[in-house]
Amino acid sequence: GARARARSKRSLPMTMPVCGPRGALCVALLFVMASAEPIASGQAGYWVKLKGLHTSEGSMDPPFTEDGRDFTVKVVNNKDKSLVLTFELNMQKYDPLEFPKIFVNGKEFEYSPADVLKYEIPLDRTIAPIDQIYRVKVADPAGAVGWPFSHETSHEYALRVLQAPIFEEVAVAVGLDVRSMDGKPIEADKHFHPGDRTYHYRVSAESSAVRLGA
């Protein structure tokens, strides 16, 4: 009996930390233990931030942080056809039935928490440069709550995507216009093609110069 009670007292700090001479419980420890439980949807403090936001191409500036809001992604290769965003959730922050909603430019991104969350952005569909902003919003699935003024718990990331144009295609000529100084056209030995680099023209011996246009 006495030995059992003594062993119980000695093992107490391992199972229930004690602070103070009277054996008061450590409030700070209890708070940490309680805060580990996910906050329910519709309640203040519901988690609406991404743990990570990754890109398949380019670099993000500044580096992603869950509290950040504005980021820029520069796609170095101007021939990349797409940019894939991967959203990473902090799974420990959620009840298995209350994961957040994700929206991209106002449209809901439907997903299963068991999947890798990927969103594809098309690139290089024209020769023009790309400068677009994609807004990724993480929101409480409960929507706007509260009375008398409702409020939506959410956090939005603005991702600016930049890609340079394909300069060799921007500068491609569509034809050659060769004329004598009096304005008469001079025909080449073959039809124009952007891939050909050599053309021959017959110019009269009296002509000292020609006009060239593209």
Structure notes:
The protein is mainly β and 214 residues long. It is built from three helices and 13 strands. A hairpin with a 4-residue loop joins strand 1 and strand 2. The longest helix is centred in the N-terminal third of the chain and has 14 residues, at 2-15.
Which strand order does the major sheet show? Answer: 4-5-11-10-7-8
Which segments are poorly predicted (pLDDT under 50) over 5 or more consecutive residues?
2-18, 22-35
Q: Helices and strands: which structural class?
A: mainly beta
What is the total tally of β strands? 13
Question: How many strands, what sense, and barrel or not for the largest sheet?
Answer: 6 strands, mixed
Give the helix proportion (percent range).
10-25%
Tally of separate helices = 3
Series of H and E elements: HEEHEEEEEEEEEHEE
Terminal Cα span: 105 Å
Shape: rod-shaped
